[in-house]
Amino acid sequence: MIKKYAMPLAMFAIFETVAITLWLTKGNPFYLFNFSYIGASVALGVALFIQGNKNARRVTQLLVGLYMLVYLGLICQENMQIEGFWYYLFTGVFEAATIHYAVAKIFGPLVFGRGWCGYACWTAMVLDFLPYKVPQGPRRTGLGWIRYVTFAASLAFVSALFLAHVGNIERIMFWAFIVGNVAYYAAGIALAYAFKDNRAFCKYVCPITVFLKPMSYFALTRITCDHDKCIQCGKCRRVCPMNVDMLDDARSRENGTECILCMECVKACPKKAL
Ligand code: SF4
Ligand code: SF4
Ligand code: SF4
Asked: Does any ligand 2 atom lie closer than 6 A to the CB of residue 259?
């Protein structure tokens, strides 16, 4: 029993270590609650996956995504989007969005790759309900530059607020969170229908991928293929939402830094080769 659930227990233990460390070092019990909640949500999703529950990932995605969007974003008024990260970085405090980015999007991906994108992001939480779970066409080339524009725009926006000595930036950050999310959802849904691909926004527009992609290149947690078992049926490639070539074990494999660890390929494999 314990062996079967070793993975979710280990994941909960990792989050709990972060929770207790931040609680004791920052002297703020919020961190104990926050990371314990997220750790429990992730562990629950992994445990459900082990039990064969088809909605395991969605459970975690909704538990974490709604918590961050509604509780942290709307109720606590913390801007957890990239503008919030720049804001806290410029103010020089290691709080809220800076901790969130450090754990989930900058250093965390060295361990769990783009698990954030598969299990926690509140933008993808909505996009994943749209009809095109598997892209209906090949990946578009030549659009990757858009993410650098949105990344630079977010940095320029917050820099301009500081350079102009605008008052009450904290309040502006709250409204930036509202407007930013509305814009992300609108663009994400429009692109999903235009490209017949739920994750088009993730692939071409999301500025956070500027952090996520290079860091996840070195991720410890990766999908790899046991080529002795594989019969080259191609079912795994057909269900991947991110166009990853998971049959190639090299880190430089096609769209390797796009893997969101959704496990659709693993579920689809008839030979348990992944
Ligand atoms: S790429 Fe961006 S929008 Fe997509 S899941 Fe990741 S963080 Fe969310
Ligand atoms: S289907 Fe497999 S390779 Fe594709 S994103 Fe999901 S886990 Fe990664
Ligand atoms: S689904 Fe499994 S057996 Fe088929 S190609 Fe993929 S890894 Fe190989």
From this structure: yes
